Amino acid sequence: xxxxSMQKKKTIGIGVIQSVCWIxxxxxxxxxxxxxxxxxxxxxxxxxxxxSVYKAIRKIPYNSNGIVVNGKFFGILSIVLSAVLISGIGGxxxxxxxxxxxxxxxxYDLVKYSWPVVDTSQNIPRLLCYYLCFWxxxxxxxxxxxxxxxxxxxxxxxxxxxxxxxFLLLSHKIGKVSVWIAIFFFCFCSWDLFAYILTYPWxxxxxxxxxxxxxxTPFFGAPSPIHLLFFAYNHGIPxxxxxxxxxxxxxxxxILILILGMLAGFAPIPCVGVAPVVTYHIxxxxxxxMTLSNISGLLTGIVFTLYMVSNQYGGDPGLAFDSTNAxxxxxxxAAFFCCTYLPFFPFIWKEIKHDTLFWGLLVTSLxxxxxxxxxxxxxxxxxxVPFTCYFxxxxxxxxxxxxxxxxxxxxxxxxxxxxxxxIGYHWLFHAYLAAKKAPSYYVDxxxxxxxxxxxxxxxxxHTICYNNFVADNPDTFFTRHMLRTDxxxxxDGSKER
Length: 497
Hints:
Blueprint: E1 11-13, H1 14-36, H2 39-58, E2 66-68, H3 71-86, H4 99-112, E3 118-119, E4 126-128, H5 136-145, H6 148-174, H7 179-187, H8 192-199, H9 205-209, H10 225-230, H11 233-248, H12 256-263, H13 268-284, H14 286-289, H15 292-308, E5 317-319, H16 326-340, H17 345-352, H18 356-367, E6 371-373, H19 378-382, H20 385-400, H21 408-421, H22 427-433, H23 466-469, E7 470-471, H24 477-481, H25 492-495
Antiparallel strand pairs: 1-2, 3-4, 4-7, 5-6
Helix pairs in contact: 1-2, 1-6, 1-11, 2-15, 3-6, 3-7, 4-5, 5-6, 6-11, 8-16, 11-12, 11-20, 12-13, 12-15, 13-18, 17-20, 18-20
C-alpha cells in the first residue's frame, strides 16, 4: 500500500508539500516586486504578499495523512526528474529550435543584464517585457555564482520541485500514489491528433507525425503535462502548481485571488481562462472573500497586468474569426471537443456530471478562444489550459481506480481508449530524431534542431520575435510610474551588445 497514514513509517506531510507549492510560486513574485518595481510600491506590496502567504501556510492542516517515503516514492521522483530532463529545460537534452531558443534568450538576458532588464544601447530604452517569473530564482543564483551552468541546473531543480509537488498533491487527492500513475500522468495525451487530422486532412502523414507541438486545430489545443513541460514550460509548470493550489483551496475564497494574482506573473493567459470561474466563486462568497490576502493578490495581479500591457505586440483584441472563416472556427471547435475530450466522458462521467467547476472551465475553454489578441491564435489554446489540467485530473483518478464492476468488454475498451490517447505522445521521439546528433535522413532538414537552442542569444538583437519580449515605448503607465527608473542607465551587459 503506497498511500498511508502516518503510522510508524517515514512520511512527508501533505501540508509540507502544499507549503512548498506556496513558496515555489511566491518567491519569484517577491523577487519581481522587489527588483522591478519602485520601492515605494514594490516593498509594501512584497511585505503584504509575504504576510498573506505566511497566513495561508499557517492555516494548512499539518496533521493530515502523508506520503510514505519508500522505494515507490523515489521511483516516482525519478520519473518526474526524467520528464523534466527530457523536456529540454536547462539544455541537458535536445531542445526545440524555436520555443527553447527564445526562452533561453530570456534567461540569458536575465542573467547578463541588471534588473529590471533594460537595454540602452539604442536611442530608446527597451524593457524586457514577458512573463518571466519562472526564471527569476535561477537567474538570481546564476548572477550570484557567475555561472550559467549553475543557473541551468537550478532551472531543472525548480521545475522538478514544482512538478513533484503537483503530482504528489494530486495523487493524495485521488487516494493513490504509484509509479504506474506517474507514468500515466506524464504520458497521457488526449485525442487532439485526430482533431488535427480532421482539421488538416490534406496534409501528409509524415507532416502530421513530425508536428513538434501539441497537434491541435488553429484555434484550440489541449496540451498534456509533457507538452507543457516542453515548449511552454515557463507558464505550463506554474499553471499546474497554481491550479492545483486553487483546487485544493477551492473552499477558501479568502485566498483564491491571492493565488490568481501571483500566477499572473507566470501564466497570464491561462489565468484569463480560470478568472470567470474564480469571479463567480468570489461573488457567491463575497464577505468571506474580502481579505487582506485577496487584496494583496489583486494588487499583484494589477501590477503584472500593467507590466504585460507595456508590450503592445499583441495588438488590439478582436474575434478569432470573421464572415469568411466562421464556419472553419466552429468546425474546429466541434472536431476539437469531439476528439479531445468527449471520448473520455463515459469513463469520468460519474465524477464530472455534478461538478460545476468542470463545466464552468469547459465553457471558458470553448468560448474564450473566440477572442484573438493580435495576429496569433495562441490566446485560444492557452486559455484552455485550466480545463485541460482539471480534465486530466479526472482521467488520472479513473486510471487509479478503475470501475471493477464494469464488464470485461468495457474494461478492455477503457484500456484501449486510454492507450490510444498516447498516440499524441509520438512527437517526443521526433524531438530526439531532430537533434543534431541524430541521423539526418530521419527528418527533413527544415525540422532539425541543434542540441541546445542558443541561436537567438538575446531578446534585444533579433527581429523574428523581438516584439514578443520587448517594450520599446518608454511612455507607458508602467515605465513612467512603476518601473525602477534608476535602472535605465547603460549596463555592462548592454555594452557588450
